[in-house]
């Protein structure tokens, strides 16, 4: 799943806005916070639906899902623990360059984890009766992840810890963000599969649904962005998006 540009823990967003005289800053902030929380809730709902489908979870959720089954810790709480560990890894990588505002990612992890716990209860009734229904649940989860990402990225607030870690590695090593994200997903799947095989003798939480979501979310998000054409951005910010065209200093 590729991380779209514009959400940056280093606070160097590639997107600039044209201020509008009639925009109420308080209204903008309230909308951003509301959209952010709604995006996280929809992402959590997608995770819970994918779990109920029994066809696999997304790569980023695979490790906490496996660990939750092995250590008998509720999935939402395990997600909080796992994502908090990602923040610790960011601190280890950055050391003196680590900014304390990045600790807000732990707060984001706590909110998201509790949303996972809540949505798990909300969809507990859904027991698919056929493989076709299972595939339908994965398709729904894929769309919901794309919608949740659209809102979560539109708010442009605190990234989830997994995204933050990917960004840190990308900036520290000078590697392309998309490539780091792909490697991160592969490492997550490999770790989840290896641990579950070693401990339980079978692969947990990784099936065809994992592949469908990994390949499908970016495409659905691209379609949503094409259909939206920055309409939501204008509703929230009261302005249009411009790519940063600040002149670069001569080498």
List the defining traits of the structure above:
251 residues, mainly alpha, two-stranded antiparallel sheet, 9 helices, 2 strands, 68% helix, globular, disordered N terminus
Characterise this structure:
This protein is mainly α and 251 residues long. The chain has one domain. Helix content is 68%, strand content 2%. The chain has a two-stranded antiparallel sheet. The longest helix is centred in the N-terminal third of the chain and has 29 residues, at 25-53. The two termini are 35 Å apart.
In short:
The protein is mainly alpha-helical. The chain has helices at residues 25-53, 59-71, 75-94, 104-122, 131-155, 161-173, 177-200, 208-228, 231-237; strands spanning 15-17, 241-243.
